[in-house]
Specification:
It is a single chain. By secondary structure, the protein is of the alpha+beta class. The protein has helices at residues 14-25, 68-82, 109-113, 128-131, 134-143, 160-173, 177-189, 226-235, 254-258, 270-281, 292-298, 373-387; strands at 5-9, 31-38, 41-52, 55-56, 63-64, 194-195, 209-210, 266-268, 317-318, 323-324, 337-342, 346-351, 356-362, 364-365. The strands form 3 sheets. Strands 1, 2, 3, 4, 9, 10, 11, 12 and 13 form a 9-stranded antiparallel sheet that branches.
């Protein structure tokens, strides 16, 4: 496999690039890309490995970023909040009247963003074709009874977060989440970035490769048990299986890539993610996406500690859509950072204090307890570098 490093970087960030190079040499397959913006300027954009077997990763390579997409959707929704088009304290029914069924009539918008709405999975088992029908999923969520009393606790809305964010965006803009992403983020910043991949971009896509360690449970989970609901938030019953991505299956399936699943199927480079977060925290190419006041409201911890399903910690902290800097577990580069990680070891975040946009993506998907270790090592290296950085 090609293990050379491509791209460019500011020598002040040598240490984090050296670590990226070391990690990349250890990849058994696939490739990776890391990008950093500092004070509105690109200071790192490096890549390594293969986009496809025998073909090296390049500046034009894009890959699926899983739940890093949620962070980008959260930028869009918080931007609409800043513009006064969405009120996080208002009832969801103000924007989506059909949502008020089965005891959900008093749910405020903020609970959708904080993973506190009790809608982390659709109760009915769905096929993949049904899952890819956005309106069908939204109708199921609107009519079903919540999985727990909304507001009393939280659980990660692994895929449904994207549907709920889409509905909020569509209700006030008339655009789908993918269309609004293109209009507000990708287009103005000049990015090859997509939520719903067009056919014309498939030639630049690095297919996902797994480490083969994700296994189905040896005994099916008891229906209605915590494990059942946590698994169903990812599988939707019959839509996906435990392997996540095989050749032309799972998230490598062209139907999945072309659809809009704005909680999980953004496709872009690390540079695109980092540039978006840079524009969120400081002017970048003449664009500023969020005000300091908006960010400070969005990063107030709202969902912390154990979830309603009681899985063991440590646990990430979440604000208004974003994952937050959680020392010792899921770290960013300062306490005023916000973003989201992604399945298999991806991450993207912005740092208001240091004016940083950072992202790491990999087409090789890690699993198990060490799934996020590589990107967290890079983040800690960045932390150290920022502490020693001189102008």
């Amino acid at each position: 496999m090609n293990t050379s490093i491509g791209g460019n970087f500011d020598p002040r960030f040598q240490s984090v690039v050296d670590l990226f190079a070391k990690q990349s040499r250890e990849l058994p397959a696939g490739g990776a890309n890391m990008a950093i913006y500092h004070r509105g300027k690109q200071v790192v954009n490096v890549w390594a490995g293969e986009a496809t077997p025998g073909n090296p990763w390049s500046q034009d390579t894009i890959s699926l970023i899983f739940s890093c997409t949620k962070g980008l959707m959260s930028i869009l929704v918080n931007r609409l909040i800043e513009q006064g088009l969405i009120d996080p304290e208002a009832l969801v029914t103000d924007y989506w009247p059909e949502f008020g069924q089965a005891g959900k009539d008093q749910v405020p918008v903020k609970w959708l963003l904080q993973h506190r709405a009790g809608l982390s999975a659709v109760r009915r088992d769905l096929t993949l074709d049904e899952l890819l029908d956005t309106e069908l999923v939204l109708n199921e969520l609107a009519k079903q009874e919540p999985l727990w009393a909304p507001g009393t606790g939280y659980s990660y809305h692994a895929l449904t977060f994207g549907h709920l964010a889409h509905k909020l965006i569509h209700s006030v803009t008339g655009l789908t989440a993918g269309e609004y992403f293109a209009q507000e983020l990708a287009g103005p910043l000049g990015l090859d970035a997509h939520v719903g991949l067009p056919e014309s971009a498939f030639g630049r896509l690095a297919p996902l490769v797994t480490d083969g360690k994700r296994e189905a449970p040896s005994v099916p989970f008891a229906v209605g048990s915590p494990d059942y609901w946590m698994a169903k938030s990812m599988t939707f019953g019959n839509a996906f299986d435990h392997t996540v991505a095989g050749p032309n299956t799972g998230f490598n399936d062209p139907r999945v890539l072309k659809a809009e699943l704005p909680g999980a199927n953004g496709v872009m480079s690390a540079d695109a993610i980092a540039k978006i977060y840079s524009a969120a925290v400081t002017e970048t190419d003449g664009i500023r996406l969020l005000s300091e006041e908006t960010i400070d409201r969005a990063i107030v911890p709202a969902s912390t500690g154990a979830s309603v399903w009681g899985e063991p910690g440590p646990w990430p902290a979440r604000g208004l859509g974003f994952m937050l800097h959680t020392p010792g577990f899921r770290e960013f580069s300062s306490a005023r950072s916000f973003g989201h990680d992604g399945l298999g070891g991806q991450i993207g975040f912005g740092d208001l204090e240091n004016q940083i946009g950072f992202a790491y993506v990999s087409s090789f998907l890690r699993s198990g307890e060490t799934e996020q270790d590589a990107q967290q090592a890079l983040v800690r290296s960045l932390q150290q570098g920022l502490a020693n950085l001189s102008d």
